[in-house]
Structure formats: structure tokens, C-alpha cells
């Protein structure tokens, strides 16, 4: 019945589970142990951590949502800002490149005008060269050095001051060819001066004669490490950590904040970054790439018109976006604060929302500890919690009624068992006694308090039967109780004082709290057995005379014959009949006849040995089984003795009366295959005794 209640609960409560978020409340109800009888089985507990968990969930949700929104917004802003910064950087770089181009063109134009003014004598002597330079002071300002070369590029004369000149004309042959062929100034690839060791470039302008033939080359050199023109470019840098640089289209570094890189080739460095590779391949504009130091930077590239140079700039993203990163941190802090405020508000809201549920929990707790009745649960609120409370009330009322019914039923069964005339014993699968009624106390002598929990086998099972008992308990334990039940068997049990108690056993089993128990009614049949024995005895006695009857005679003779044959001992059977007994009946009445029969039986009993059996087998017919008698003369003597004992007058109806008897005697011999054959021979001998005149005996041949 309790199980049915729980099943009903399972069907009713899901609607509340769906209605309320406090599923744990309902689970607590479903988890209630149905076998608890005395206490209120339904219990509800509102987990204390529920508020904390819900608040935590809200805080996390708000935090995550705010952070995602902030993060996405900043991401979009960063993307736009990156484009702005990149475009700005590229515009700045393009401006620097244009200025550099303009300055290079100005130097080329200067060289071209100087070349027109160079006298052939300047190439012929150092003095002529010096004179020429002296007359053109601008050349000293614009170039680190001014030099004249012959057509092959061999140095003729320099201005003689800080000479920077071509260190390997052969290596620059292609460049010289380009200068000669073009007839105009060209910037050389960067090189290291073999005189000063400084990194330098030279701008060469062909010098032609009157016929337009190139007679010499006029070169103006620039020190890459000390050039105001390049320093202007270097000064155009973004932020504190950004910088500008120049390299040729072949990858040779022309200008770089790190002077050790000058004249080095970027393409020969291990793993040049992606932006550099793109720039060498012709890319112009800005892009993002990870530099050699591992930092993400914005790179911009712009090619020059007046030289095979690429002007570049690098701006580390960490610095470029420092304000954005700061904003991101502030955004996260704002999100955390927002989440904390939301959590606090949620906490307050949950506390308010849970108040009625807490009240419900409090009521149920009070019901459990007995300080309140279930009536406090009766519906009081017009909302779902009121419905839940009402449902609890109904449920608990039904369960209380069910439990009361069970208690009443149990009390009835206990009362019946206690008053049962038979011993009732139950035990667990391990044999431990769990029930012992008053009749069991009487039958076996043990008090209930002394036996509960003890092994039944030790108390009432006789040692000889313990094997069978254990087999039965095993079968019970294996669930084969059906084989043992529905049978009433007679067994012997043991009383506390040691004597055996015959009992009739009825087995059964019950299931309680998920466990099976063996039950047994044990009916003490001591008195019944005695009564049965008495009945059996009565069935073998002649009621009139009190001696053995025909049934007893036949059983006794059967046993005696078997014993005589087995032990090879003699046996004699006497068949007796009262002479003319009918006349006694007829003259004195039936009662007098009975009196004669009784006296006759008594005299027979008095004249035989205790081991001999005297029986009345019909009206006035008697038999005597003589054990240990095998000789005819001994049999004759016994017969004679009996005949004589009967001759003594009987007192019948107050008067003496002469009674005689005839006896036929047969001795057991090998021809008597059955007791009946022996009887037949004795009967035949009796017939002969009658025929011989009665009041005597005859021996069977
Ligand atoms: N009083 C009395 N008479 C009985 C009882 N059972 C049998 N009888 C009578 O016993 C008599 C037996 O007679 P029988 O043995 O046939 O003849 P008998 O008169 O004894 O003559 P013989 O045997 O030839 O000497 C019958 O009349 C029976 O009615 C009994 O229990 N009580």
C-alpha cells in the first residue's frame, strides 16, 4: 500500500517539478523510504545552497554576457582602429618616401649640372679636381665626397676629404653599365667603403665631351650612417617603439635603427617575416605580421621612384592598441561589477521568492519532529506553492491513514499470532529468530526475549535433523520456498530441557522491508500421538473381556511365527471353544453369557505365562499362542491344565455353574507355510476334541 502511494507521488509530482525550479524539493519526496512507518515518511528539504547556486549562476551569466558584449564591441573597434592606424602609418610613410624621392632627385640634378661644368682638366690632375670643387661649394654640402672616375669606373681623383668610394668596381659593373647606358645619375647599391669602412651609396652622373661621348663619371657619395636625408626618414616613426627603415629591392638594408643591420641582406636572414617577404615581392601598403622578436606589429611599405629602395615602418600592435587594451580591462572590470550587482539583486529576489517555500520546509520539519500537525500544510496561498502545500497535506493525510491501517493490521496479526494455540516462529534467511509467540514459549520452554536474534537451529532443531534443516534454509535462501511450503510434516523439535517435542510443521514465507523471512507454525502433537496410540491399542482389545481381539491375535501370531522360524524356536497354538455355550445364553440370558466369557478369559490369562498371548477371536472362541512350546507332551500338559482350570464352577448370575471347554492344539512345523495354516490345523484339532466328547483337548497331527 505504501508502495502504491509512492507510485502515485511519482505521477502527481512531475507537474510541480515542471512548475518549480526547485526540483530537489520533489526529489527529496521521491527519495523518501517507504518502509519508514512510525515517522512521517514524506520529507522535504530545501537545499541551503540553492540560493547560492542560483545567485552564482546569475552572476556567471551576467558576467559572461557582459564580457562577450564588451569583447565583441572592442574587437570591432580594434578592427576599425587598426585600419585607421595602418592607413595613417602608410600615409606618413608615403610622405617620407616622397620627400626622400625629392631629395634624391635634387642631388641627381645637382650632379647633372656639376657634370656639365666639370673641365676635362679636373680628371687629369688632383689640383684640377680640387679647384673644381672649390668653385662649387654646394657639392661639399650635399655630398660626403665628390670623385671622378674614368669610363671603366676606376677612381681618378677625389676631393680628398673622407674618401668614400667604390670598393669593388667589378661587383658594381652592372650598375656602371646602367649609368653609362642611361647617360643620367643613378643611385648605386649600398656598399662598404674600403677606405673608411662606412656603409655608403654613391650617385654617379656621366660626364660627356663636346661630342656627347662619356669621358668620365662624376660620383657623389652619401654616408648611410650619417645622412641628414635618411635621418629625416628615421625621425618619421610611430609611437615610442615604432621605427622606420629602408632596404633595397634586393633586400640590402640601407637604413635601420639597429646600425649592425646596415648592408645586411634581409633575404639571407633566417625566416624573414611575412610582411618583409611581401614587400620584397612588390607589396605596397600596410599589413600585420609577427616580427622576429615575436611581437605583432603593423608594417607599412612604400617604394621610391628615384632609387631601388623600399621605405618601411613598423608599429608594434601592443603600443598601437594600448588605449584599447586599457579599455578592455576597464570593460572587464565594469562587467564584473555589473555581474556582482546583478548577483546581489538576484540574491534578494531569490530570497523573496523562496520565502513561502522556506515556510513550507519549516512546516514539514515541524511535522516531522511532532511540533505541528499536517493541518498547517492546508492550502493557504492562491499560487503554485499553495497548491504544492495542499498536495503535501493530502498526500501526508493519505499516508497517515495508510500507515494507521497497516499498524492496525499489524496489531491484529500480532494479536492473533500471540494468541494462536500453535507455536509461531519466523526467522531470517540466516536463521536468526525474528518472531516467537506465547505458544512457542510454552512448547519449547524458551522466553521470547531469550531467543530473538539467535539461530533457530541451535534452539529447537534436534542435532540429527540439522542437516535437513540447513538444506531447507538453503532452498529458502535460493528462493525455492515453494518446494518446502504447502506441506504439513511431522518432525521432532527440542525443548529447552532437552526432551524431544513431536510437532506438526507448516512452513511459509513473508516479505518484509525487501527481505524474505521463513515462517513456521509448530503444532505440539504430543497429546495427539498419545491418543492415537491409545486408539490403536483399543482397536486391538476385545472390549468385553479386555484381552486381545482377533486383530491383535493375527498380528501377534504373524510376528510370533516369523520370530520362531528365524530363531528356530518352537511355537504352539491352542484353539478353544466353550462347550455348549449357547445353552448358557439360552437358559440364563445373554448377560450371564457375557459374564461367563469374562471369567473364562480371566482363567485363561491366569494359566499361561506372561509371554503367551490369550485372545478372543469370536463369540465363545479363544486362542492361546504358546511361545517356546514345541513338544506335544508339554502342549498336552498345558491343555490339560487349562481344561482343569475351567472345570472349577463359574458363578453365573449368583449361582454356581459348571462350564467346560474343548481345545485343539497345533504345533508349528515345517509344513505351516502361513499362520493361517497353523490356525486351520488348531481349529481342526478343536473339531476333533469336540467330536471326542468335549471337556478335553486334541493335538493336531
Ligand atoms: N452372551 C454372549 N453370547 C454370545 C456372544 N457371542 C456369541 N454368543 C453366543 O455363543 C453361542 C455359541 O454357540 P456355538 O459355539 O455355536 O455352540 P455351543 O452352544 O457352544 O456348542 P458347541 O460349541 O458345539 O459346544 C451362540 O449362541 C452365540 O449366540 C457374546 O458375546 N455373548
Structural overview:
By secondary structure, this protein is α+β, with helices and mostly antiparallel strands. Among the domains are: 118-226, PAS domain (Beta-Lactamase), CATH 3.30.450.20; 237-320, Beta-Lactamase; 420-525, Beta-Lactamase; 539-699, Alpha-Beta Plaits, CATH 3.30.70. 50% of the residues lie in helices and 20% in strands. The protein has 24 helices and 23 strands. Strands 1, 2, 3, 4, 5 and 6 form a 6-stranded antiparallel sheet that branches. Strands 8-7-11-10-9 form a 5-stranded antiparallel sheet, with helices on both faces. A 5-stranded antiparallel sheet has the order 13-12-16-15-14. α24 (675-691) links the parallel β22 (661-667) and β23 (697-699). α4 packs antiparallel against α9 (228-235) and α4 (49-117) runs antiparallel to α12 (322-368). The longest helix has 69 residues, at 49-117. The protein binds guanosine-5'-triphosphate. Guanosine-5'-triphosphate binds at residues 544, 577-583, 585, 590, 593-594, 597, 619-620, 690. This is Response regulator PleD. Residues 409-462 form the PAS domain. It is a multi-pass membrane protein. One of its GO terms (cellular component) is plasma membrane. Residues 569-701 form the GGDEF domain.
Amino acid at each position: 500500500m505504501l508502495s502504491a502511494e509512492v507510485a502515485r507521488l511519482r505521477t502527481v509530482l512531475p507537474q510541480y517539478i515542471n512548475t518549480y525550479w526547485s526540483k530537489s524539493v520533489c526529489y527529496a519526496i521521491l527519495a523518501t523510504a517507504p518502509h519508514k512507518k512510525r515517522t512521517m515518511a514524506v520529507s522535504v528539504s530545501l537545499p541551503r545552497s540553492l540560493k547560492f547556486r542560483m545567485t552564482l549562476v546569475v552572476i556567471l551569466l551576467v558576467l559572461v554576457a557582459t564580457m562577450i558584449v564588451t569583447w565583441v564591441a572592442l574587437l570591432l573597434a580594434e578592427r576599425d582602429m587598426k585600419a585607421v592606424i595602418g592607413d595613417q602609418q602608410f600615409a606618413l610613410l608615403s610622405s617620407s618616401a616622397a620627400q626622400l624621392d625629392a631629395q634624391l632627385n635634387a642631388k641627381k640634378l645637382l650632379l647633372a649640372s656639376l657634370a656639365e661644368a666639370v673641365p676635362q682638366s679636373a680628371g687629369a690632375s688632383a689640383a684640377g679636381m680640387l679647384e673644381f670643387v672649390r668653385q662649387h661649394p654646394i657639392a661639399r654640402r650635399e655630398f660626403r665626397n665628390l670623385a671622378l672616375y674614368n669610363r671603366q669606373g676606376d677612381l681618378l681623383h677625389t676631393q680628398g676629404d673622407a674618401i668614400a668610394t667604390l670598393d669593388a668596381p667589378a661587383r658594381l659593373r652592372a650598375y656602371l653599365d646602367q649609368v653609362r647606358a642611361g647617360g643620367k645619375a643613378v643611385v648605386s647599391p649600398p656598399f662598404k667603403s674600403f677606405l673608411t669602412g662606412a656603409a655608403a651609396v654613391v650617385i654617379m652622373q656621366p660626364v660627356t665631351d663636346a661630342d656627347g661621348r662619356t669621358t668620365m663619371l662624376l660620383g657623389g657619395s652619401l654616408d648611410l650612417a650619417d645622412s641628414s636625408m635618411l635621418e629625416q626618414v628615421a625621425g618619421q616613426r610611430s609611437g615610442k617603439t615604432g621605427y622606420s627603415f629602408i632596404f633595397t629591392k634586393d633586400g640590402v638594408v640601407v637604413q635601420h635603427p639597429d646600425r649592425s643591420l646596415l648592408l645586411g641582406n634581409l633575404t639571407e636572414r633566417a625566416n624573414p617575416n611575412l610582411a618583409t617577404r611581401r614587400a620584397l615581392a612588390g607589396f605596397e601598403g600596410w599589413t600585420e605580421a609577427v616580427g622576429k622578436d615575436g611581437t605583432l606589429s603593423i608594417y607599412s611599405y612604400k617604394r621610391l621612384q628615384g632609387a631601388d629602395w623600399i621605405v618601411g615602418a613598423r608599429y608594434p600592435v601592443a603600443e598601437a592598441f594600448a588605449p584599447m587594451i586599457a579599455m578592455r580591462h576597464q570593460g572587464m572590470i565594469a562587467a564584473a561589477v555589473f555581474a556582482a550587482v546583478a548577483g546581489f539583486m538576484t540574491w534578494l529576489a531569490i530570497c523573496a521568492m523562496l520565502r513561502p517555500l522556506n515556510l513550507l520546509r519549516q512546516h514539514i520539519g515541524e511535522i516531522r519532529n511532532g511540533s505541528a500537525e499536517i493541518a498547517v500544510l492546508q492550502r493557504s496561498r492562491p499560487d503554485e506553492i499553495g497548491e504544492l502545500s495542499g498536495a503535501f497535506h493530502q498526500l501526508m493525510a493519505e499516508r497517515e491513514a495508510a500507515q494507521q491501517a497497516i499498524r492496525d493490521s499489524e496489531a491484529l496479526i500480532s494479536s492473533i499470532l500471540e494468541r494462536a494455540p500453535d507455536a509461531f516462529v519466523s526467522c531470517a534467511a540466516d536463521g536468526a529468530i525474528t518472531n516467537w509467540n506465547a505458544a512457542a514459549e510454552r512448547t519449547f520452554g524458551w522466553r521470547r526475549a531469550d531467543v530473538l536474534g539467535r539461530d533457530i537451529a541451535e534452539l529447537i532443531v534436534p542435532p540429527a535433523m540439522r542437516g535437513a534443516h540447513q538444506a531447507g534454509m538453503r532452498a529458502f535462501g535460493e528462493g525455492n520456498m515453494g518446494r518446502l511450503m504447502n506441506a504439513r510434516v511431522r518432525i521432532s523439535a527440542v525443548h529447552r530441557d532437552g526432551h524431544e517435542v513431536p510437532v506438526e510443521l507448516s512452513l511459509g514465507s513473508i516479505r518484509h522491508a525487501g527481505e524474505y523471512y521463513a515462517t513456521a507454525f509448530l503444532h505440539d502433537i504430543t497429546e495427539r500421538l498419545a491418543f492415537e496410540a491409545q486408539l490403536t491399542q483399543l482397536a486391538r482389545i476385545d472390549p468385553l473381556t479386555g484381552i486381545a481381539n482377533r486383530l491383535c491375535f493375527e498380528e501377534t501370531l504373524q510376528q510370533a511365527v516369523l520370530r520362531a522360524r528365524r530363531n528356530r524356536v518352537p511355537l504352539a497354538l491352542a484353539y478353544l471353544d466353550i462347550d455348549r455355550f449357547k445353552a448358557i445364553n439360552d437358559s440364563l440370558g445373554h448377560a450371564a453369557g457375557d459374564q461367563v466369557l469374562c471369567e473364562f478369559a480371566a482363567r485363561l490369562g491366569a494359566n499361561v505365562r506372561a509371554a503367551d498371548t490369550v485372545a478372543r477371536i469370536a463369540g465363545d472362541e479363544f486362542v492361546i499362542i504358546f511361545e517356546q512350546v514345541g513338544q506335544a507332551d508339554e502342549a498336552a500338559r498345558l491343555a490339560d491344565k487349562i481344561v482343569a482350570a475351567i472345570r472349577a464352577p463359574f458363578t453365573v448370575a449368583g449361582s454356581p455353574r459348571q462350564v467346560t471347554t474343548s481345545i485343539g492344539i497345533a504345533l508349528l512345523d515345517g509344513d505351516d507355510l502361513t499362520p493361517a495354516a497353523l490356525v486351520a490345523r488348531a481349529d481342526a484339532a478343536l473339531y476333533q476334541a469336540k467330536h471326542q466328547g468335549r471337556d478335553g483337548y486334541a493335538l493336531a497331527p
